[in-house]
Amino acid sequence: MTLRVDLHVHTNRSIDGRHSLERMAAAAKQAGLDALAITDHDQCTPLPPELAGVLLIPACEISTRSGHITGLFLDRPIAFDALCKDGRPTGEAAVAEIHRCGGLAVAAHPFQKPGVDGSRLPPGLDAVEGVNARANFKVPDANAQARQWAVNHGLPAVGGSDSHGCKEVGNGYTEVDCPAKTLSALQAAIAAGRCRPVLRRHTTHREKGLSQLAKARKRGGVLRTGKALAYEILCLFRDLVHAPKED
Questions:
Q1: Are 24 and 113 part of one and the same domain?
Q2: If residue 96 lies in a helix (H) or strand (E), which one and from where to where?
Q3: What is the pLDDT of residues 25-50, one digit of tens each?
Q4: Does some domain include residue 90?
Q5: Residue 217 belongs to domain spanning
Q6: Residue 247 falls inside a structural domain
Q7: Which of 191, 37, 181 shows the shortest CA–CA distance to 99?
Q8: pLDDT over 70 percentage in the chain
């Protein structure tokens, strides 16, 4: 069977996430997805096995000196206190910790910033995010670069929305060929490369602005919130003038 899985989703437990786990799962169901990886920033969100008929994948997104790395299919929480005791960990340390916790280590949106050539990515990765629905804001061909890097290094390419709100869920996802709708079957299929990334649509600038506004409100402060509101207005203007381009 072919399952549709969004491998990069943030709930409101992330500093810039806007909606609850329940709302994100309901959005996934509406989008026709079979599973979600909950990749909140630098934390492992406790999950039930499934919600709204959607399988939930224990995961996280780790901020490292080599960029962001998602840990998927974790069978135990990441030891963030030890991993981040000296600040942001190295990419190699994050990959090793993900593997210690039984997961797959995936380079998340590795080319979304200008001037990145991939040389900073750590060894030991299990896959590369070849579709991220937010990756094109500054680098229009960021996803294409990531897919080519995956090909050059013999790694599977996966896809995710990087959603920070329920309207983004399923903008990007992964089609996985596997025999059953279980965590173990999905993990084995992705590790074996029986998957392909799919871009349904790029996320709008407006949604990015709303996630920044959520971050500002959680951190507090009139000036910070005012700047975020101004940024949201700029994002609305960008959507009017420069609609997101497809790959």
A1: yes
A2: helix 91-100
A3: 999 999 999 999 999 999 999 999 99
A4: yes
A5: 206-241
A6: no
A7: 191
A8: 98
